[in-house]
Amino acid sequence: MRRLLTVAAAAGAAILVKRALGRRVERSPLWPMPALPEPVSGVEREAPRGFVLGVAERTTPAEGVVMLRLTGDRGALPDWEPGAHIDVVLPSGLVRQYSLCGDPAEADTYTIATRLVPDGRGGSKEVHEQLYEATEVEVRGPRNRFPLVDAPAYLFLAGGIGITPLLPMVRAAAAAGLPWRLVYGGRSRATMPFLPELAALAASSGGPADERLLVVPEDEAGLPDLAAALAGTPRDAAVYCCGPDPLMDAVGELCAERPPGGGLHLERFSPGPAARPAAAGETSFEVELRRTGRTVQVGADTTVLAAIRAQALPNLPYSCEQGFCGTCQQTVLAGEIDHRDELLTDGERGDSMLICVSRARGGNLVLDL
Amino acid sequence: MSNKAAEKPAPATAEDTTRVELRARDVSFDWSATPLHWIPGDPSTTHTINVLHLLLPAGERWFVHVYKQALPLIRDESLRADVIGFIGQEAVHSRAHDDVLPRLRALGLDPTPYTAQVDWMFEKLLGDRTFPPGRARRWWLLERVALIAAIEHYTAFLGDWVLGAEALDRRGADPVMLDLLRWHGAEEVEHRSVAFDLFTHLDGDYRRRARTWAVAFGALVFLWQRGVRFFMENDPLLDDGRASVREFVRGGRQGVLPTTGAILRSIPGYLGRGYHPSKEGDLARAVAYLASSPGANGRAPDRATATDAVRTDATDTAAARTAAAPNHRKGV
């Protein structure tokens, strides 16, 4: 009898324990472990992925050129600065990059312009044939690989549709009251967009308007005299050039002989590592490692990661070297960052960078290393 | 397309000619069409596999965290290159699984109560400050490196299993989820030796290997059992969901889960004196899968800059598929 009671008591206790445990596990799946107050896993990353915009207006500012104003239904779009571009996912899935040529102050609209290239790779054809009012496209970005640096004067050299990233720069220089000059080449006046607006900007910027703006249609005046344009520019000016490859190569050669004080800045139509030599358009800068107490030089042809590993910290962790794994993320204490990765969220971009691909914008950087 | 990692000469040693150079792959998976029970009609198996999404985001982030600290201790250049490739692969794995969690939440199964506790385990309990600086902390780093080697034995085991689990295809499992699991599994098979080699390089003590194996195996059983239970009890589509051992054994018999026997047989494998991970798993099959995985090839590595990203890549993928197909069949 006593044995029976003991067994019953033990069984009862076991049932009570199981129930109590069950209740705890129901409330806390990994009981007795506590939870991290601010969970890290499963938090949706508001990564700068794509968003859908609609074509609000389609116009033809010149022969063979279509201009699209893209707007979303959520109001203000991410900010951008002159020189920025967006990736547009076309209906076929092709991804193309287009410079923003509207007004950065117009917060709810991105404006792009494309020239039809009938024998091109299909992107411009799709824009011209398929994107009409109310068409929706996915847009990523904006990103800026062609930022306008501070300089006492500017020389802009545009070839054809290469005017698109330069137009907001011209507006910015004019608004800031800085001396600027634009040499704008194209096949004929009829094919060159934005001529009236540029003429108005030149007229309102003071000084003789033809000093500011030199329009060179090939059928009237041949190719622009780049050497003369560069020679007539102040030594400390920044030179910005966007257009077809022969134009860019010619400017590159002229500037190699007599480097402009504000630097030469190139934007090619077809970026990508194969088309663009690593050093083209890149600048060198310094990175201070605050905790290590060292400063490293980052040349135009190397990365922040490679420079730090070679000159100061050989064991710095990294992996993919292409800006997607996130291993080399470092905290930035000071300096403006030119983000070139697609991983970090806007929040993370404020004070950190992936040093395998991203660089300094203009000045130098201070890292918490 | 530039694959900077691929330009580096592949490290090769005399005794191991099958060595592959490790590099992280940029992947993308679209979860918008994946249903809650992504193995149709089999919630129990679905959730048993779903536990991976609860453990791996925090777990693989922790691997990366620990290995970053181990990097300066490595005195072998080819092992260092492997560890660097390993770190990138694990970082991408962690994020790829993490991206599934918002989808589960959107389908009415919020994983946060569980993942917040897993986060605590990896960030705090297994974090850096569990032991004071100095010798204790060095011991703790070695202990964690050994734990990772033991866990990697199981990730390679599971990876090799999922690459050959044709029953999942026959059951009509969600193709995107299968691609995630097989891409991940294939990379686990691809880098199966790295964690064990690092442990051997830094320490290699057999008692530590056995001790950390016991801890890792016990923890995995505990976490998995609680994870399946959590999912089954909170699944909005199940009235009276319950995890059971019988369902697990059934899954093994049907080929949609590893068999209990195979799991038990893996134990003496890791504890054997002559164990080396390069003897486990089918590397050729893994490499063939990686060449054909839509998620790992569907996006140009240089999508940030290549204007013709989509088109170039589509051709590459097709070429890779053609190249990989014969191997793949042979492997399976």
UniProtKB/TrEMBL annotation, chain A:
InterPro entries the UniProt entry points to: 2Fe-2S_ferredoxin-like_sf (IPR036010), 2Fe-2S_ferredoxin-type (IPR001041), 2Fe2S_fd_BS (IPR006058), Beta-grasp_dom_sf (IPR012675), FAD-bd_FR_type (IPR017927), FNR_nucleotide-bd (IPR039261), MRET (IPR050415), OxRdtase_FAD/NAD-bd (IPR001433)
Superkingdom per UniProt: Bacteria
Start and end residues of each FAD-binding FR-type domain: 48-149
Known cofactor(s): FAD
CDD domains: fer2 (cd00207), PDR_like (cd06185)
Keyword Oxidoreductase: yes
Keyword Iron (UniProt): yes
Pfam families: Fer2, NAD_binding_1
Keywords noted in UniProt: 2Fe-2S, Flavoprotein, Iron, Iron-sulfur, Metal-binding, Oxidoreductase
Residue span, 2Fe-2S ferredoxin-type domain: 285-369
Protein name: Oxidoreductase
Lineage start: Bacteria, Bacillati, Actinomycetota, Actinomycetes, Kitasatosporales
From TrEMBL, chain B:
Keywords for this protein: Hydrolase
Domain of life from the UniProt record: Bacteria
Classification via InterPro entries: UCP07580
Signal peptide per UniProt: none
Pfam family, one: Metal_hydrol
Disordered: region residues: 294-332
Source species taxonomy: Bacteria, Bacillati, Actinomycetota, Actinomycetes, Kitasatosporales
Statement: the UniProt record of this protein carries the keyword Hydrolase: yes
GO MF annotation: an example: hydrolase activity
Protein name: Metal-dependent hydrolase
Biased composition (Low complexity): 315-325
